[in-house]
Specification:
Blueprint (H helix, E strand, L loop, with lengths): L1 H15 L4 H19 L2 H9 L23 E5 L4 H8 L1 H21 L5 E17 L9 E19 L3 H67 L4 H35 L6 E5 L8 E2 L3 H10 L2 H22 L4 E19 L7 E14 L7 H67 L5 H36 L4 E2 L4 E4 L7 E4 L12
Helix pairs in contact: 4-6, 5-6, 6-7, 6-9, 6-11, 7-11, 8-10, 9-10, 10-11
Length: about 525
């Protein structure tokens, strides 16, 4: 028995000093069991399928202080197909939402721990030495002394058999975890849509710059011809001034579009979180990315089915109901089974005339029983919280109906605008062809002396405006198509088959498909 007691004291001492591995392993086993239960559950299987990521090391917390640290040193070509991958790899907002998923996962693990027993180990003096001397003036009472080494270890295991708040708390944590995953998906789709819009607008700016350069080149040729004719006495100064005015307009247009290009490049670099010394370039020209192949009714149903915002509202209803149940559980009885083991060891004696320091004594005790607690009256606190959370649940249900109506309105609005944008592409394409032919004829008339420079200036301006409107219509169409895909969660895009009518004199009423025209961009699909 003495050897057993000494071994118990040694083990207790090792535990307090942090060396005992047996207790640590027992806690690891409990944690492993909890993780295993989570990994086998449907909740974590879903997140493993949807969100598989590896966070990069946290960014350094510093600000650049030298101009060489922010100066643009290189250009990087970004393709449309690369936007999603670069966003996932670089964007800090996405990583923040991934951290929120991990936080919700940890809270879920914390709530699941209420199904497991708790183990508490405490010790007093490992060991402790007590020495004292008692002096008495009376001769009838002798002086006494105390010299003793002592130690005490106590272990308690408690397991809640009945805990009314346990199930609603776990249910709330599961719903919060699902809500965090939905919020991640929503933010990812929103950022993808924003990146696509920026990308399309940057393509538009690039195309408009090319249009402006060609217009300037044409205006310079027209100005040169007007100057030659003026010097030869054939033309007038008014024609030369009109050519100069058109050239100035084209230069202003080019300057504005260069500004739009730079702004778009930095906006794309910001959302993709590119290094500060890198400027992104679009890897392709403005092209129609496809057409929407689903009907309006199918689109609306898909928007309802794949909308994370509606799912989050339903989760809010469930969370509020779980919180209401947990609030009511505060006034219900709780039953626990408790096992307490205590061991103490003493060496020496207390209050003796001559204490024997070799005298040893020890004690062992084990107690097992049921503990019950019941908070009978709390002043109405639990009932008030119950009603509060039930009211939040009712509010969420009303928000569900409101959001559902808004989703349909938004989908229908984008769908109708998409149809209009498709028609605008055809109309603007026909306008480009007509304006181009008008400009050609105006130049022939001017060279023949039939018309004046004003006619060329007007037709050239119309030709430039028509090309810009065509580029804008293509960009608007792509943005609307991406917006519809984001709202529905569908990749319901197929190669474009938009038909346009070439109403030029040479090809009157001839239908030309996109793939047959060098002016209308080919689909990227």
């Amino acid at each position: 028995m003495r050897r057993v007691r000494k071994k118990l004291l040694i083990l207790a001492g090792l535990f307090i000093s942090g060396i005992n591995s047996s207790w640590a392993n027992s806690f690891k086993t409990i944690s492993y069991d909890s993780d295993q239960k989570l990994s086998n559950s449907k909740y974590f299987n879903q997140v493993n399928e949807k969100v598989i990521y590896e966070l990069n090391s946290p960014p350094d917390l510093f600000l650049p202080s030298l101009s060489k640290e922010v100066i643009i040193r290189k250009n990087q070509e970004i393709k449309y197909e690369q936007l999603q991958k670069i966003l996932l790899d670089n964007n800090p907002t996405i990583k923040i939402y991934l951290e929120k998923i991990d936080q919700a996962k940890s809270l879920l693990r914390n709530s699941l721990s209420s199904w497991y027993p708790t183990i508490n180990l405490s010790a007093n003096g490992l060991p402790q030495y007590f020495e004292s001397n008692n002096y008495n003036q009376s001769d009838a009472i002798s002086d006494t002394s105390s010299k003793q080494w002592s130690s005490s270890v106590s272990a308690q295991i408690q397991w809640d058999l009945i805990n009314p708040a346990r199930i609603p708390e776990i249910s709330e944590a599961k719903d919060s975890f699902e809500k965090a995953k939905n919020s991640y998906q929503m933010k990812l789709k929103d950022l993808e849509l924003k990146a696509k819009k920026i990308y399309f607008n940057l393509q538009k700016a690039n195309e408009e710059i090319e249009v402006a350069k060609k217009s300037i080149k044409s205006s310079m040729i027209g100005l040169k011809d007007a100057q030659i004719k003026f010097k030869s006495g054939i033309g007038t100064k008014l024609e030369m001034l009109e050519a100069q005015t058109q050239l100035a307009r084209d230069k202003q247009f080019l300057n504005n579009k260069i500004s739009d290009q730079k702004i778009g490049q930095r906006a794309l670099a910001e959302i993709l979180s590119l290094p500060e010394n890198v400027t992104p370039l679009t890897g392709s020209k403005a092209r129609i990315i496809g057409i929407w192949k689903s009907s309006l009714e199918e689109t609306i149903i898909a928007a309802y089915s794949n909308n994370e915002e509606l799912n989050n509202i339903l989760l809010d209803v469930s969370i509020s109901n779980s919180q209401a149940k947990a609030a009511r559980a505060a006034g219900q009885p709780k039953l626990s089974i408790v096992n307490t083991f205590t061991s103490s060891f003493n060496k020496g004696e207390l209050n003796k005339i001559s204490p024997n320091t070799d005298n040893e004594s020890s004690s062992f005790s084990n107690t097992i029983g049921l503990n019950a607690s019941w908070y009978i009256f709390d002043g109405g606190s639990s009932q008030s919280l119950y009603k509060f959370n039930k009211s939040k649940s009712a509010e969420a249900k009303l928000n569900f109906a409101k959001t559902r109506a808004k989703i349909r309105k938004d989908v229908e609005e984008v769908f109708f605008k998409l149809e209009t944008a498709k028609l605008n592409i055809s109309a603007s394409y026909s306008e480009v062809l007509s304006a181009k032919e008008s400009l050609r004829l105006a130049k022939l008339r001017y060279e023949s002396g039939i018309s004046k420079q004003r006619e060329i200036v007007n037709n050239q301006r119309d030709f430039t405006d028509s090309k810009v409107r065509y580029i804008v219509s293509v960009t608007d169409y792509n943005i609307l198509l991406s917006d519809l895909s984001r709202q529905t969660g569908l990749d319901s895009i197929k190669p474009c088959d938009i038909k346009v009518k070439d109403e030029s004199p040479q090809n009157h009423e001839k239908e030309i498909s996109l793939s047959e025209s060098n002016l209308i961009p080919l689909c990227q699909l």
